[in-house]
Amino acid sequence: xxxxxxxxxxxxYIKGALEPVAxxxxxxxxxxxxxxxxDADAIITRTRTxxxxxxxxxxxxxxxxxATIGFDHIDDDYCQKHGIxxxxxxxxxxxxxxxxxxxxxxxxxxxxxxxxxDLTLGVVGIGNVGSKVAQVGEALGxxxxxxxxxxxxxxxxxxxxxxDEIIRRSDIxxxxxxxxxxxxxxxxxxxxxxxxxxxKPTAILINSSRGPVVDCEILKRELGHxxxxxxxxxxxxxxxxxxxxxxxxxxxxxxxxxxxxxxxxANGTAMSIQAxxxxxxxxxxxxxxxxxxQPSTPEIIIxxxxxxxxxxxxxxxxxxxxxxxxTGLLRQSPQTFEKQRGDYRVRREFQAYEIVNPGEIKEIAxxxxxxxxx
Length: 374
What we know:
The chain is an alpha/beta fold. Helices cover about 35% and strands about 15% of the residues. The strands form 3 sheets. Strands 7-6-8-9-10-11 form a 6-stranded parallel β-sheet, with helices on both faces. Strands 2-1-3-4-5 form a 5-stranded parallel β-sheet.
């Protein structure tokens, strides 16, 4: 029996993969409707498709795979009650978000002439992504404070700090939490007035997790009052209709693309195909993406006029990914938020680059994931 599978047409590297064993239709994720999936066996999607009763009622969908870490677009209660299985792609883009945060930290350090060794990085949420971001801070010589209440409870981890301590002590706070709208570990509007007012006046907030984790109205007001130095947002409330006043206030601002490296996309696609294959026994359980495009300039040569470690590292990191480039595009055309996200250019992660004659940054660069050659 050939299965019918509906696939978001913006998922890369997937076209042609399942056609030998299934009837496949590619559709815009935000426009997939009940009519489209009525006789489908599976959906492979991203966060733009709301997988709820409105979409799934009276259909024959048995399985949903989302090629993303986030899964709050999937109504788990409805799926459980109606025998629909689903899976996400945990950790698929952790390397990409790590790259994004590294660029943000280093560009901020240069902008404000901060020495990395003098900075404290607070990482809230130590899952697949947060763990790698914490390692970045350690590689850069920063003091790293970690917070993850569920993990601390369940794993009895003594090196995790309370959130209040992280808020008070950190120079940069970066959020890597799921969106929980209620319960003991609620993260909806985790960052609100009290949170921001406890931060150092010189501190900077980064959110690349889920938009509603930050109360954007409160953040805009507090930035206007200069309560903290600044903020970096990749995710927003009410995407794609973002707050233009807030956009103008931010240090860096991007259209929900922190996890959008070619490597991360390939991981998410592969995990989704493998999951669908296992569920329907299609024989693609070990499928992977082949021939991810290489960078146009995979070798990085550090200019001799750069003197400090921060300058050299920032140059190398920006050759792989420069957060200011995406910020410029969004500020120039915020109304094309969705198009910028959907048509995002291919970028490779650190491991696709080699730093030639790295000198004093060799050890740090290798810890970040770069290849080096003396």
